[in-house]
Design goal:
It is a single chain. The protein has 386 residues and is of the alpha/beta class. It folds into 2 domains: 2-271, Acetylglutamate kinase-like (Carbamate kinase), CATH 3.40.1160; 280-372, Archaeosine Trna-guanine Transglycosylase, Chain: A, domain 4 (Roll). It is 35% helix and 21% strand. The protein is built from 15 helices and 15 strands. The protein has helices at 2-5, 17-20, 29-44, 56-60, 73-96, 109-113, 115-130, 153-163, 201-204, 219-232, 246-251, 269-276, 288-295, 338-344, 352-356, and strands at residues 10-15, 48-53, 101-107, 133-139, 168-173, 179-181, 187-192, 195-197, 235-240, 258-261, 282-286, 306-311, 318-323, 328-333, 370-372. An 8-stranded mixed beta sheet has the order 3-4-2-1-5-9-10-8, sandwiched between helices. A hairpin with a 5-residue loop joins strand 6 (179-181) and strand 7 (187-192). The chain is globular.
Length: 386
């Protein structure tokens, strides 16, 4: 399986704050210079690279005479503003020495959620790559608030990978990968799970929500990113960015870090937009018969299989679909509001006219607007290369 990623041509590389900064919060010029050289080597091989780089807040807060990462939004935004300029100046200088032109792109969640802006950003990134420019992406922390934040660059890197349909996301951090769990329940710091198919539920118990002093992610956030990538049909690797020649080792097929293998065929761009770029407005709970129809037979969601409705949503919103066991099984673009879905839940399609006065659609969610996110089973996970 490792051999497959050696052929990756379009790669997103995510660099975490803990990797790029010292314990005091200043940019680690040595590690950045080293990574820039490795990325330049990949571009020299003819690969297309997009860099998602943290470090702006970590670089900026010390310049505002703060001794630790700020807690208040105004100080976080001010730190990002100062730090982003410092970070990009450094990248521009270093990549210029390799004759590589860089472009800065700062994003909020709305930029990827709103369809027109989503397509514009995708077109811009594709154009930059076609002209041998390295896009460097970060969250626009200066203007982001809770409602439009990604929350961490692990999620941002996964969404960017989906946006451009990258072959591989390499998430470089300051740990060696996903750690194995010891018999006493603790995580073993020297034993790494080398390969997983998707992100099974059992893997979440091997993670922690703990973050570094400077960062905002954690292993849990990286596993959520891996779930997005593998559901979309692509590969992701978590590895230690401080290891010597880490990018070369990953792309030569060495067993290093944790490789996440896709669980599905590659999704088309519209289904990616439905599945990953929206914050869902509500939930529809369905029975097991409807679940089988959606997952096993590729059917649309009809009102007869709906058991309950949670939250408020309008026609055209994205909603989550849950089964009766409380498991999320999918997401979809809904054809009716929550009030109308409640009225027709459990009824046959032919009764919609009587219950609502008209029938705009036979389906509550059409199969073309539906994405299945549930792993049908939790397969045996290989620890060694097959």
């Amino acid at each position: 399986m490792r051999q497959l990623i050696t052929y990756s041509q379009r790669i997103v590389i995510k660099l975490g704050t803990g990797l790029l900064t010292t314990s005091e919060g200043r940019l680690d010029h040595d590690i950045i210079n080293n990574l820039v050289g490795q990325i330049a080597g990949l571009i020299g091989q003819g690969r297309q690279v997009v860099l998602v780089s943290s470090g702006a807040i970590g670089a900026g807060f010390s310049l505002l005479h703060q001794t630790k990462r700020p807690k208040t939004l105004p100080l976080l935004q001010a730190s990002a503003s100062v730090g982003q300029a410092k970070l990009m100046r450094l990248y521009d200088d270093l990549f210029s020495s390799h004759d590589i032109t860089v472009a800065q792109i700062l994003l909020t969640r709305d930029d990827l959620k709103i369809r027109k802006r989503h397509l514009n950003i995708r077109n811009t990134l594709n154009t930059l790559l076609q002209h041998d420019v390295l896009p460097i992406i970060n969250e626009n922390d200066t203007v982001s608030v809770d409602e439009i934040r990604f929350g961490d660059n692990d999620l941002l890197s996964a969404l960017v990978s989906n946006l451009i349909q990258a072959d591989l996301l390499i998430n470089l951090t300051s740990v060696d990968g996903l750690m194995e769990k010891a018999q006493d329940g603790t995580l073993h710091p020297t034993k790494i799970i080398h390969q997983l198919v998707g992100v099974p539920k059992s893997a979440m118990s091997h993670s922690t929500r703990a973050t570094s002093k400077l960062g905002s992610g954690g292993m849990n956030a990286k596993l959520q990113a891996a779930k997005i990538l593998t559901t979309a049909g692509e590969f992701m690797v978590i590895a230690n960015g401080r290891k010597e020649n880490i990018l070369e080792k990953i792309l030569s097929g060495e067993e290093i870090g944790t490789l996440f293998v896709p669980t599905k065929a590659r999704m088309d761009s519209r289904k990616r937009w439905i599945a990953f770029f929206h914050q869902s407005k509500g939930k529809i709970i369905i029975d097991h018969g409807a679940q089988n129809a959606l997952i096993l037979n590729g059917k649309s969601l009809l009102p007869s299989g709906i058991k309950d409705v949670k939250g408020s949503f309008d026609m055209g919103d994205i909603v989550l679909i849950y089964n009766e066991d409380g498991e999320e099984i999918g997401k979809g673009l809904v054809n009716y509001s929550h009030t109308d879905v409640k009225k027709i839940a459990g009824h046959h399609t032919k009764e919609i006219d009587l219950l609502l006065g008209d029938r705009s659609y036979d389906e509550v969610i059409h199969r073309n607007n539906l994405v299945i996110t549930l792993m049908v089973e939790d397969p045996a996970q290989p620890q060694e290369e097959s």
